[in-house]
Amino acid sequence: MGDNVEIGVYPTRKAQEIADELGVDLVEISPNANPPVCKAMDYKKFVYEQKKREKAMKAKATKVIVKEIRFGPNTDDHDYEFKKKHAQKFLEDGAKLKAYVFFKGRSIVFKDQGQILLLKLAQELEEYGKVEQMPKLEGKRMIMFMAPKKTK
User: 3-state DSSP call for residue 35?
Assistant: First the structure.
């Protein structure tokens, strides 16, 4: 039943009278049980506390941020270094990194160069993050995912 009521099997009327005496609600907990299980409690307070718990759980949940960096199969060294610095900053900030090489038109014949580029990026950013998914060709994109290393 409630906090200061003996646990037992009561007829519905008696249970309702006990709840009324205590000034609380009679709430059905398990309707499929035989006999149905009820509890005397302040229902509004129960709902309020439940929402409060859910809100606290939601606040504790971590939000995963995914940052993207796009390369071409024939990306120049200067552009590569520039984008690598951005990738390094993203990983240091705790975001996941999605690096991909986009093949336009006939540049798909350079898929080896794209894979080498992504593997080179993974190797150079090894101290900031670890590879979650090795370079994989999906349509006209070769995609690789990196996750940040845990900071101490």
Answer: coil
Nearest CA to 86 out of 137, 128, 41, 144 is that of 128
Q: What would the pLDDT profile of 29-48 be if each residue is shown by its tens digit?
A: 888 888 888 888 889 998 99
pLDDT tens digits for 83-119?
Answer: 999 999 999 888 899 999 998 888 888 788 888 999 9
Q: Which of 67, 65, 147 is nearest to 100 (CA)?
A: 67
Chain segment 61-75, per-residue pLDDT in tens: 777 888 999 998 888
The answer to whether the CB of 36 falls within 8 A of the CB of 30 is yes
Indicate whether this model's pTM tops 0.90.
no
Is the C-alpha dihedral spanning 74, 79, 105, 143 positive or negative? positive
Q: Of 3.40.50.300, 3.40.350.10, 3.30.110.10, 3.40.50.720, which CATH number belongs to 66-148?
A: 3.30.110.10
- The domain spans of the chain are 12-60, 66-148
CATH code linked to domain 12-60:
3.10.20.80
